[in-house]
Structure prediction request, 792 residues.
Amino acid sequence: MDAAYLPLPPFRLNLRAEQLELGDAPIDLRPKAYALLYRLASHPGELLTKDRLLEAVWPGRIISEGGLSELVRELRSVLGDDARHPRFIETVHGRGYRFIGATDTARPASPRVTAPRPVGRADELATLHGCYGRAITGARQIMFVTGEPGIGKTTVVEAFRRELGALVGVQTPRVAAGQCIEQYGTREAYLPILDAISRMVRGEQDHTLLDVLRRLAPTWLVQLPSLLDGAELERLERRAVGVTRDRMLREMAEALEALTAHRPLLLIMEDVHWSDYSTLDLLTFIAQRREPARLMVMATFRPVEVYMRDHPLKLIKQDMEGRGQCQDLLLGCLSPAAVEEYLERHFSSTDGAPSMSALAPVVYRRTEGHPLFMVNVADYVASVGFGGFPDSVLNSIPNGVRQMIEKQVERLSDQEQRLLEAASAVGFEFSAASLAAALCIDDVDAVDEACVGLVRRAQFLVSRASRRWPDGSVAGVYRFTHALYQNVLYHRVAPGVARLHLRIGLREEQGWGARAAEIAAELAAHFEAGQDHVRAIDYLAIAGERATRRCAGHEAIALFKHALDLLAHIDDPTLRDQYELRLCIALGAPLIQARGYGADEVATVYTRARELHERVGEPAQLYVVLWSLWLMKVALADHAAALTYGRQLQTLEAQDRVGFPLAHYTTGCSQFWLGDFHGARTTLDRALDTYDRLTHGQMVGLYSQDARTVSLPYRGMALWILGYAEQGLEACEASVEWADALGHHSAWHSHTVSAPSCTTCGASRWRRVTAASRQAPSPVSMAFCSGSPGAR
Prediction:
């Protein structure tokens, strides 16, 4: 056995890295959880008392047994263990724990023990099971679970998910779950989908999903760099150059369908009333496909957020309903009988509790069966006791769920209130490391333990798997049990909220380091709320560039425009102009995607960029501006104006080693469409002569084109028209071969921004024409060739 590892099949402890691993994939554990697991696993079969474990994990500190119990629960959750039927950690009641995994690895998996069903939801769960029954026959299903805040949408979804998890054989689904976030979710394209995919990949013991994504959805893997090594990421980034929205939608739809060939798939998207537009596009695309797929999509939303605010989901859902592509499950309040059943469960072990038949009408009259309100009232009643029942209970209960939450918060200690208020600023789901920064506390373990205390008492928070940041920090992750809790607490913070957000943003920026771009939208939100507008603009720009690469034009435009609005907070006019120039250049591409080259807004943005460049610009920026103006004129078939921009690009060639082959290409292309075939041939020869493959990656990143790939087919067409058929054929074939060698064949013919250019798709077409004729062109073909790309 390798001394660097301690095997816990199917897991292992990496003793050097001090982390738990499944295969080669690390599983994040808080340092205390790792220490406990190591202590248990290194003494297999031995009873370790609670005192011994407390001293080993928290040497020299006085810690309650509750903290130890919470760590054991966390380990069981990560290991997939069950306290009643343990495979790894056995509880010896009243004494301690024993690790049995290393000595009993052949023990069969125990049956799952599920939580009881939520009260009053039997009919709703039956509807969901019927929907899943149709899905596993290959008839894809889209189910919207709707209702007002606190009505129990997540509770029903989780109950249904648990019940499916108890199935056996081929009917047990893969589950992918993603969450839309109010704070910044609409800014982050495909946020719930990418969240769901990432969680599913990390949770799988094999590489099936990753292999399917590599084969069918490589452009999506590029959006999840933490799942790939550097070499593979670089290779996939080259393949993804010029990706279109349609291609991304098709890739993900096909990948999901391929996954369902092996096992059914349950895709959960929560709170889609906060969703970005791109996610809704994907949902529509999935619903409209007719290929068989054992797929069930569940999306939760609040109707008032959709129908009263003209959210795009409103029209999308109406269209789906009209086509019979979705179902709607509207959750209402609970019945008096369901309220009584809940209270009987809640107070079953409470001494001195009155008859539930007497208490239930009191609670129902005040809450009208609203589940979240009912839960809060039951907790409140339990905390104040039953003296003077029922009048004292009835009179002390607030009239609404928000007031009830406020009353619950006020019963916490000052320290706990401060902790929860700071947590609400971090987000609906938060890391203890971010929370510690918000509170100016260096001891993250202490913050972890305070959160664990609230989790243990089932007050406001639930625990999630711990998370490792790129800088190596590992801390517990928690989330509010409902978004209303976060909302109520956040509104209590008002006076110092800016300082909180700034500290959170700085800590997360430090923790993510070079990978901070992956959470750019989140950082932008924190820095804007923290009034660090320069940083906010920087991260809005990064988030917008990421959205542009995902072909999420709506989100990209919104991000760049919001950044432009924040420029009013920058006092330095030079710095303000520099940022505006950068943002105008970046805004152009998504505007073209969304509005087209001929839109007035596109011309306005690039004209403004040209003006700003005269004051504060750099040569490379002017290159991008002129390139974009050239593309716009080519698309509008204004080749004379395009040639002017091409000539201007040529004058800059000495200042931009990366771009000047493209300068000759633009001029040669415009000469071709103006009928100057001799001039085009000569200019394109210069483009090819000055091409340097070493700068290829930079060229594609800046201009979405590779000069050699796009110059060769135009040179070939010019030669063909001039009567050099064989040379023309060779040039066209060389273009296709070169694009294939670079891994960009599919990218060039699908790239929307550079669609007017002659791509390798066009090169293939001209190659066929040339191969068929192998002679000087006829007058008819000459006339055809003299048209514009739009005419073709």
About this structure: DSSP finds 38 helices and 15 strands in the chain. Residues 103-114, 745-763, 772-792 have pLDDT under 50 and may be disordered. The two ends are 68 Å apart (CA to CA).
